[in-house]
């Protein structure tokens, strides 16, 4: 049997991903898709706009749509990628997007302290290169973060960013139609562009995980309510069974209804242009094989994300002077914080249990004719929810305020071998020799994975230029686990994950059994000791796709702040950064929801500065 599994792994690794995607596209044609075709502004591009938004992702799509609410303003949204692919609209096909063409295909530099079981000690850093950005390819979990995150931002010298300040913008964005969170209804918005709803489908394992949490003393909670400690079936940015990206929720409705919003896809911005007074007056970009320029009468807004916004600033001469000079980039403003303060949520991959047949998620079951029919008929079943995503949990912090958790746990109803090594292994950069040795006997078995995730990591990384070539990928060095306390926190998190897996709710309820094979690379440590789990973390932890912080928001007294509390770039005029890169500290949970909030708040800041009406947001 093991030999047969190895043969399956050997042959399936050569199945072309393009063939798989072709089959998926044929399926999604039956489902229907949003019609984005009328939005391409190639044939009506103007020479000048009031506002140019660079990047049509989770924040940029929001800003562009909201600015276009002012009829007299002309707004241009430039997106480096194309339109959302058909498969992106079906929630259960989310895993296919890891191998698609809608990503920048960035990888980290080799890591000294982590990623020991990954190819070249590096991992893929997926960020969306598609209209909707990462909201078009993420796992659709809606998590705002902890109220203490935002109060702390304000305490760091950023007025207007307390939880009380930002909650109205979360609610303004949200159209909550879920049924589970009646006790926290006042914390949710109704009627906003972004539909947030209950997960429509889950296997028996999900209830067992929630039971395990209760067995350990944890309530089932609404993590977007007043407190965050507990277990939760995640809310989803899904509307009527389809992905609710910012492309579908904001950009498409705005571009359909308004003539003052132009959207240009496949437009790769290479530089922000400044006049002699250091005012941003436009951008230079590549489109249809030509270099083009377009002017901005009021502002340029960078919403290119935590990896590309600092890269564009540096290519435009705004950044650490010594670094720019080393790449022969003329220095406009010496701004040393650009590209520093990179934060991410690393999570441990590979803590795996097997379970009884029929209690978890299986690839062939999710792609069965019955599942397809169920989804086509009423948008329910396995394809109506992201593949494998079941439960989130947060536990009290070990030090300081216990209500501000330093660990989140991602429960997935799949094992790393769920796809026979076809997509996951290469998608995340896992070494194939280790995959065969460690996970080979799990092929074809049902199970689940618990991924402890550091919500407040202490390690900090950088994004720097590889060269002055505007098409060259940046050097991304997250410096994962470079701070020793991050490893100690992971050890504590792994122990909790083991306690969850050892509950009677899981052992007796679904037959959970831990995959207790010794991890390759950690054979020299006493199994299950603290040193073994520390070794496990250094070999298996990697990104959870949440890079932020590289254009830090902060007061003038902070020498490494890049933008002020109104998101204006220091040292220049007419330029803001509006995306996750402005976070001074990463939020305690998945980052898509707070990045959308940043877009909502930024739009009102911009409207206020230019004398446009600012509609009242939902009150707290």
Low-confidence stretches: 1-17
Rounded to the nearest angstrom, the distance between the terminal CA atoms is 59 Å
Number of strands: 23
Strand content: 15-25%
Q: What structural class do you assign from the helix and strand content?
A: alpha/beta
Specify the overall morphology.
Answer: globular
Biggest beta-sheet profile:
7 strands, mixed
Mean pLDDT across residues: 92
How much helix, percentage-wise, in residues?
Answer: 25-40%
Annotation field: number of helices = 17
Radius of gyration over all CA atoms, rounded: 23 Å
Folded structure, characterized:
The protein has 620 residues and is α/β, with parallel strands linked by helices. It has helices at 2-12, 17-31, 60-67, 147-155, 163-173, 204-215, 246-257, 305-315, 321-326, 363-366, 369-378, 424-428, 432-439, 484-501, 504-510, 530-540, 592-609, and strands at residues 48-54, 75-78, 174-176, 194-196, 230-232, 238-239, 242-243, 261-264, 268-274, 280-287, 290-302, 318-319, 333-334, 346-348, 352-354, 389-395, 407-412, 447-454, 462-464, 475-477, 513-514, 541-543, 575-577. A hairpin with a 2-residue loop joins strand 6 (238-239) and strand 7. Helix 3 (60-67) runs parallel beside helix 7, helix 3 (60-67) runs parallel beside helix 17 and helix 6 runs antiparallel to helix 15. The longest helix has 18 residues, at 484-501.
């Amino acid at each position: 049997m093991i030999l047969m599994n190895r043969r399956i792994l050997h042959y399936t690794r050569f199945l072309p991903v393009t063939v798989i995607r072709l089959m998926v596209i044929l399926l999604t044609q039956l489902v229907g898709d949003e019609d984005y075709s009328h939005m391409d502004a190639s044939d009506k591009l103007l020479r000048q706009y009031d506002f140019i938004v660079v990047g049509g992702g989770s924040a940029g799509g929001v800003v562009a749509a909201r600015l276009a609410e002012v009829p007299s303003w002309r707004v241009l949204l430039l997106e480096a990628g194309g339109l959302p692919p058909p498969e992106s609209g079906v929630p259960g096909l989310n895993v296919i997007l890891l191998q698609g063409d809608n990503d920048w295909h960035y990888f980290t530099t080799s890591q000294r302290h982590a990623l020991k079981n990954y190819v070249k000690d590096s991992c893929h850093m997926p960020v969306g290169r598609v209209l909707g950005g990462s909201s078009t390819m993420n796992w659709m979990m809606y998590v705002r973060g902890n109220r203490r995150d935002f109060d702390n931002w304000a305490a760091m010298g950023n007025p207007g960013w307390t939880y009380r300040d930002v909650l109205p913008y979360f609610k303004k964005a949200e159209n909550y139609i879920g049924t589970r969170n009646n006790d926290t209804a006042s914390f949710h918005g109704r009627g906003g562009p972004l539909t947030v709803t209950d997960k429509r489908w889950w296997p028996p394992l999900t209830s067992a995980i929630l039971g395990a949490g209760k067995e350990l003393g944890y309530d089932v909670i609404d993590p977007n309510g007043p407190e965050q400690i507990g277990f939760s079936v995640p809310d989803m940015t899904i509307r009527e069974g389809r992905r609710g990206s910012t492309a579908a929720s904001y950009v498409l409705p705005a571009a359909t209804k308004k003539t003052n919003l132009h959207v240009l896809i496949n437009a790769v911005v290479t530089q922000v242009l400044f006049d002699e007074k250091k005012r941003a007056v436009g951008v230079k970009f590549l489109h249809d094989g030509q270099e083009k320029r377009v002017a901005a009468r009021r502002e340029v807004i960078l919403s290119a994300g935590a990896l590309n916004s600092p890269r564009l600033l540096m290519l435009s001469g705004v950044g650490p002077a010594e670094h720019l000079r080393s790449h022969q980039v003329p220095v406009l403003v010496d701004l040393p914080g650009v590209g520093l303060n990179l934060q991410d949520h690393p999570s441990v991959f590979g803590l795996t249990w097997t379970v009884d047949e029929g209690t978890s998620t299986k690839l062939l079951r999710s792609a069965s004719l019955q599942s397809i029919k169920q989804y086509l008929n009423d948008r329910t079943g396995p394809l109506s929810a992201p593949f494998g995503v079941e439960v989130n949990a947060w536990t009290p912090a070990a030090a300081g305020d216990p209500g501000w958790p330093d660990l989140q746990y991602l429960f997935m109803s799949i094992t790393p071998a769920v796809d026979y090594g076809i997509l996951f292994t290469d998608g995340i950069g896992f070494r194939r020799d280790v995959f065969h040795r460690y996970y080979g006997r799990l092929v074809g078995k049902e199970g689940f994975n618990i991924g402890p995730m550091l919500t407040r990591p202490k390690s900090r990384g950088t994004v720097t230029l590889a060269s002055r070539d505007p098409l060259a990928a940046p050097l991304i060095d997250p410096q994962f686990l470079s701070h020793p306390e991050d490893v100690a926190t992971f050890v504590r998190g792994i122990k909790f994950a083991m306690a969850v897996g050892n509950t009677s709710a899981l052992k007796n309820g679904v037959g959970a059994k831990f995959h207790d094979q010794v991890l390759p690379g950690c054979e020299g440590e006493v199994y299950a000791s603290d040193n073994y789990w520390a070794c496990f973390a250094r070999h298996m932890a990697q990104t959870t796709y949440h890079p932020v912080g590289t254009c830090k928001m902060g007061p003038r007294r902070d020498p490494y702040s890049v933008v002020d509390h109104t998101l204006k770039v220091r040292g220049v005029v007419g330029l803001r950064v509006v995306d996750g890169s402005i976070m001074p500290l990463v939020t305690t949970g998945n980052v898509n929801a707070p990045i959308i909030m940043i877009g909502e708040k930024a739009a009102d800041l911009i409207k206020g500065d230019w004398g446009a009406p600012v509609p009242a947001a939902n009150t707290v």
